[in-house]
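Troubleshooting: if your tokenizer reports a length mismatch, compare your output against this known-good record of 450 residues.
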Amino acid sequence: MNCPTCNASVAPGVAFCPECGTRLPLAPAGLRLLQGRYELIRKLGQGGMGSVYLASDRRLSTARWAVKELSDAQITSPLERQQAAEAFKHEAELLARLAHPNLPRVTDHFTEDGKSYLVMEFVPGETLGAYAQRLGLPRPLAEVLGWADQLCEVLEYLHRQTPPVIFRDLKPANVMLTPAGTLKLVDFGIARLFKPGKDRDTQAYGTMGYSAPEQYGRGQTDARSDVFSLGVLLHQLLTGHDPTTTPFRLPPADALNPALPANIAAALARATAPDPDQRFASVAELRQALRSSGNLVARESVQLAVPRPAPLEATPFQPSGGPAKTTGIALTAFWMGVVSVAWMVVAVALVAAGAITGDAEEILSGLGALLALPPLISGPAAAILGVVALFSQATGATTRGRRDAAIGVATGLATLLLCCALLAVFPESELEDARPAPVARLLTMEDHDG
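Known-good structure output:
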């Protein structure tokens, strides 16, 4: 640990800093120390073949790692245990060579006390599964297609490796969403190497409903297997349908969500075809099909963490399930505000014209004053409706709805400012005539006294 005052390195268990004498806080004891370096702090998750821990680094005091622990306790054959250890080392070294913004960095691997460990970058945030559970499904179309762009990028990168890396288990629980909006694949399924039958790539592996049918039969898994899993994941995010209830047979996406464009639903249907030959041949083809809809916006660089918002012409999907480019309350605020500010501009122009021309009959000023009365009510009402719409969850799910609500607020406030401008240019005679009689008489007496 390090001294909080002078940042000097201090051995564990020391009560005072040897450099500055500061009393050190008692740090909670770690769960375990690995390699004399990685101190396991708390468990982040657990699977069938091991667990993932958050760990601190005694060599790099500010570093935090995710340490995956894999146990071979379920393998009884000594030969298979040796083969599993060799396969784990091979795949760990392969992952360590990967470098992509949508993959966590793998920095170390080792075996200790009969267990294998993989040290990788700790990814803050939450899984797509937890995010969807917290906010509900289905998610807006623009949001999901932004994620699809990132997932296509990283899967294309994996498939270009030599030999190609097939993810095989793409599902919401294996995709992390960082606070910056970046997706990261966090589980490459190294645990599968600890199962017997490693001489074939047709072993039962994956999550039923998300993994392709060939992973459970006699087929050979390839890039099309990841196309299937990606299609299933996008289908669930856009429809809310749980694929584990109907493995390999997903209902048409546009039947569950009528707001989806037909070409998006068709692309998902082809991607999730049970027969690999009927699917897209690559993730790049699926990506192109999604882009042809006009809703998937390509990022200029893979370094961009947050996908661009969809263009205003796109039709985002609302959580309520209804197709809408905006909401009723936002649209009402928009038009009420626009009409109010335009009406008030005309009123100010008439009053100003009367003041400039010295209209003896004061017809223009009086007409302008009458025209100003309706927007005095509708302008503030537009601003209030716009504020209510901005805090509405339905409006928040639509880009155009947020824009309409913001314009309603702005034009409502502008109407009030124009009202002040009208009073400023209003003729003095009109203002005096508008005063109550006692006040006018008092002012007249003051003038005489002066």
